Amino acid sequence: MSRNSAAALREIGRNPLLRVLVDVAGFLILVAALGALLAHNTAALGYRWQWHRVPRYILTVRDGQLHAGPLLLGLGVTVRIVAVSLGVSIAVALATALLRLSQSTVGQALARVYLEAIRNTPLLVQLFFTYFVVAPIVGLDGWTSAVIALSLFEGAYASEIIRGGIVSLPAGQWEAAYSLGLGRRDALRFIILPQALRRILPPLVGQGVSLIKDSALVSTIAIYDLTMRGQVIVAQSFLAFEIWFSVAVIYLVITITLSALVAVMRRRLVGSYEH
Amino acid sequence: MSISSHHDAIITVSGISKTFPNGVRALDDVSVSIARQEVLVVIGPSGSGKSTFLRCLNGLETVDRGTIVVDGIPLDHDRSNRLEIRKEVGMVFQQFNLFPHMTVGENIDLAQRRVRGTSAADARTVSLELLAKVGLEERVDSYPARLSGGQQQRVAIARALALRPKVMLFDEATSALDPEMIGEVLDVMRALAAEGMTMVVVTHEMGFAREVGDRAVFIDEGRFVELASAQRLFDAPREDRTRAFLSKVL
């Protein structure tokens, strides 16, 4: 008996198709068990799943016309905040990286202070500080405060990614550029940054994904982004499980879309020259 | 010490010294003047200061003391002087240092377009001319990674010639090459010398150095130990240290 089963196991190990089947079957059993557990527990809670009430929060038909529901409206706000913050944070990041690599002692010190301040305090506190302290003084609205706080936060991390990409290039590339009579700016623009881009793009996309996720915090300063809309709907409809599940899936869709877009762009932009 | 008289010198180096931050004394009170159309070869053990000397000549390294004048322009802290000198001085590196994200043609176009403001079409005409000179015209649209080491170094020489410099610096241009590719690069250098290009050549190729060099200098521990006509230095070195070095490498 045991000899037979040992032989059967060896057979499975050798046959690639069988190995995949066993692997998938194991996974399905695990999912089924978790599903059963979930169903049992929600039943015990007395939760009634009402998925049919969710679509109207995404799209609604009024007067024979299709209108965006609150979740889509919230997604629009999130996307706009993320898009603007992404642009600003990359500009901030590049400036900070170049300051840190510059000869200027003051520039280096400023960049250093900014980095340490941002990286050693919570984003939520930075957001509140911008919105409740800085904004009233200089007269910013909530939306601008959100963009500034997010940009400064992500920019700090992105600047270290950019700086890392720049210093990882061989010194010979700078020297070749200088020996040809190019100045520092031209060397950066034509030689260093195009090559660094190839190295920094993957971690930079990771930072972009963080930005999308971190943008959910702007719901705390009364901005009607995706998360805030979810909160409001849940408060009105008590569809907590369905709505938070949907909100999570929407975030997942946009982060994965961003990663895929950049993967395509990267192949087209910089994929060719090493072959 | 110098054979050439001062008035036709294109590079005048007076008493330069350089100590690296780690305390290594790379150059110690070095003086030389290099005549137009002269080929000066620089030999010496590794770490002797040969490369540092060469890199000082176009300002890739700064000196602690002494002066360098190239074609009448002092190489000092003035940025525009430094850029002006780099237009006059081409440099070829041991590791080629081609720009890997640009084609061969773009590598050679770049300085013409950014430094001289040449139009794209005119720059490309010059680039093709220079590529023909190093025998690589048909590789104008290749990326450097597709070329052999010898081909890459020939492209690097073409690139260094793009601004029509008056002086060419070679920093161990063949040291990173497989043996079978050294010849093609030395041939290009030989042809340049025959055209009358002023050259400063740091090299380990002693046969080539003796053949192409007008003068040769042996550097050790940052000092010019012996400077003489190439023939004399290789055939009848006067200093013990030169003799000891040559007996090891020849």
Q: How is this structure best described in words?
A:
- With 275 residues, chain A is mostly helical.
- Chain A has helices at residues 2-14, 16-45, 55-58, 70-101, 105-119, 123-138, 142-167, 171-179, 184-214, 226-237, 240-270; strands spanning 59-62, 65-68.
- In chain A, 80% of the residues lie in helices and 3% in strands.
- Chain A is flat.
- With 250 residues, chain B is α/β, with parallel strands linked by helices.
- The two termini of chain B are 25 Å apart.
- Chain A binds chain B through residues 170, 172-173, 175-183, 186, 190-191, 194-195, 198, 270, 272-275, and chain B through 58-60, 79, 83, 86-87, 89-91, 93, 95, 97-102, 110-111, 114-115, 143, 145-146, 159-160, 162-163.
Mean pLDDT figure of chain A: 90
Number of helices of chain A: 11
Strand tally of chain A is: 2
**What are the segments of chain B in which pLDDT stays under 50 over at least 5 consecutive residues?**
1-6
Class computed from helices, strands and strand pairing of chain A? mainly alpha
The appropriate CATH architecture of the largest domain in chain A is: Orthogonal Bundle
Q: Which outline of chain A best applies?
A: flat
